[in-house]
Structure formats: structure tokens, C-alpha cells
Design brief:
Length: 308
């Protein structure tokens, strides 16, 4: 496998390091427009390989030619959120960045699978899909894996149990309109509504929605990258190893869940071909309404970009 990570900031560099440490690829390319940053970070990571025992080759570059024939392209490029800034505030600037990165990467790797991480996530995934010209199964947004991980973490903290026994499902857009599903979230197979009262569940859901902003407010000058990079690598591993994982990811819908021509987080089967199945689970009326509202919010933001 050959994997390209575009964007050598905290999310991109940490994703590259996790991929190298896990030996998921024979070669990893770290690309950034800031000359010296990808080269320096890549060399630093590669010098750690004799200690960690990874034989993955790591190259930093400002050019796309070396990325030719990449199997997976991870796009993390874009400006980061600052305190008080919503994901939507980022979208005009980041749309131009993501469009340019996608076009250049696909020029050299037309058979790749793209994982989008840049915010606002759902909108940027749509931008990458249109810019790439690839079929929808090969452009996937990383959102639900991260949001579900945050939900799991908060559930484990609240109930005082091992995180290994907690499963959680978060659908919808990656933002204020995300749709955590307590009925499909469990502790050792026991649904949350049987363990928590409504107020506690509502508190956990709201903290999950605010998960990224909570970290931004603590850091002041940066945003989350440890959890996002871990979520990226879970998706990369599912593709590299053809694991057929069932994960919530942002994908283009064309009628599934009654939603068309937008990107939103839903459960998918992910393997060597990217999106191998979009899984349609039964939703209660309020859950269905929340998912459709989330999709409408994404569409409203897409309309602001005037992509057509």
C-alpha cells in the first residue's frame, strides 16, 4: 500500500505517524505547501522507525508527483478552527484548499480512495467528490468515527466502566446538528436508555456535539488532533486490510434515508473498495427528522459555495 497524507499540520502529521507505527503501508507521503515542514516532520518520524521497528518508508514533499499511484489519499489540509469560530466559518477558504488538493492528488492517483478530514467535514467531502470525479464509494468523510468515539468516551466516564465495553453510534453532520443515537449505543450490549435517565443522556449527547469546541476552548490556539487522527487510521486500516468494518462515515447519499445529493454521516461497510454498502437502519420519527434536518443544514452550507 502507498498512502498520501495531504496537510502536515497536527492532524495530518499525527495520522501519518500512526499509519507508519502500525505499518499499514510500505510508503507514506506527507504533503504540504509550506516548504520544509513536511520534509522535516517526515524525516523526524522516519528517524523514530529504528526504535519503533517500523519499516515503512516516509517522504515529505511539497509536490504531488511523488504521490503517484497512491492507494489512499487522506486530506487534512485547511485552516484550523479558532475559539468562537464554527466549522461553517471555515468553509469558503477550506473549500478552495480541498478542491485544489483533490484535483492535484487525483491527477497522479486516479484509482485512489479519498478520506476527507478537513472541516466543515460534510461540505468538504462533497467538494472533494465533485472535484475528483471519482465514484461515490471512493470518497469518504471522517466524522462519525470521531463523534462516536467521543460519545463512547463520555459514556464510559459517566458510568465508570471500561471504554472497551461501550459502543456508540453518531450519525448526521459533523457539527451542531449531529445525531447521536442512544438506542443504538450500549454498555456491554445494554442500551443506554436502560442505564441512564433522559437528563443524563441529553447531557452526554450535548457534550458529544460540543466535543470539538470543548477542546478548542481549552487549547486556545489549536484544535483536536489525537482523536481525529486515531479515527482516520481506523478507516485506513479497514481499507488496507479489507476488514469490512461497520462504521459511521460521511458519504454521498442518493435516496438512502430519503436524502439526495448531499453528504451526511450514516453507517457503512468499509473495505478495500471504500464504501461497500450503505446500511439503512430503522429510525424513529424524531431520529429520522433529526437526520433530515442535519442533511438540510449541510445542503444550506453547500448552497453558499455556489458549486454548480
Amino acid at each position: 500500500m502507498k498512502i498520501t497524507v495531504i496537510g502536515a499540520g497536527n492532524v495530518g502529521a499525527t495520522s501519518a505517524q500512526r499509519i507508519v507505527d502500525s505499518e499499514l503501508a510500505q510508503e507514506v507521503l506527507l504533503v504540504d505547501v509550506a516548504d520544509g515542514i513536511p520534509q522535516g516532520k517526515a524525516l523526524d518520524m522516519y528517524e523514530a522507525c529504528p526504535v519503533t521497528g517500523s519499516d515503512t518508508k516516509l517522504i515529505g514533499t511539497t509536490h504531488y508527483e511523488p504521490t503517484s499511484n497512491s492507494d489512499i489519499i487522506v486530506i487534512t489540509a485547511g485552516i484550523a478552527r479558532k475559539p468562537g469560530m464554527s466549522r461553517d466559518d471555515l468553509q469558503s477558504t477550506n473549500a478552495d484548499i480541498v478542491r485544489s488538493c483533490t484535483e492535484q492528488a487525483v491527477k497522479y492517483s486516479p484509482n485512489s480512495i479519498i478520506i476527507v478530514v478537513s472541516n466543515p467535514l460534510d461540505v468538504m467531502t462533497y467538494v472533494a467528490l465533485k472535484a475528483s470525479g471519482l465514484p461515490r464509494n471512493r470518497v469518504i468523510g471522517m466524522a462519525g468515527v470521531l463523534d462516536s468515539a467521543r460519545f463512547r468516551a463520555f459514556i464510559a466516564l459517566e458510568y465508570g466502566v471500561s471504554i472497551e465495553d461501550v459502543t456508540a453510534f453518531v450519525l448526521g453532520g459533523h457539527g451542531d446538528s449531529m445525531v447521536p443515537l442512544p438506542r443504538y449505543s450500549t454498555i456491554a450490549g445494554i442500551p443506554l436508555p436502560e442505564l441512564f435517565d433522559k437528563d443524563t443522556i441529553d447531557k452526554l449527547v450535548q457534550r458529544t456535539r460540543d466535543g470539538g469546541a470543548e477542546i478548542v476552548n481549552y487549547l486556545k490556539t489549536g484544535s483536536a488532533y489525537y482523536a481525529p487522527s486515531a479515527a482516520v487510521v481506523q478507516m485506513v486500516e479497514a481499507i488496507c486490510k479489507d476488514k469490512k468494518r461497520i462504521l459511521p462515515c460521511a458519504v454521498y447519499l442518493n435516496g438512502e434515508y430519503g436524502i439526495r445529493d448531499t453528504v451526511i454521516g450514516v453507517p457503512i461497510k468499509i473495505g478495500k473498495n471504500g464504501v461497500e454498502e450503505i446500511i439503512q437502519i430503522k429510525l424513529l420519527s424524531d431520529e429520522d427528522s433529526a437526520l433530515k434536518k442535519s442533511a438540510t443544514d449541510v445542503k444550506d452550507n453547500l448552497n453558499k459555495l455556489h458549486l454548480d
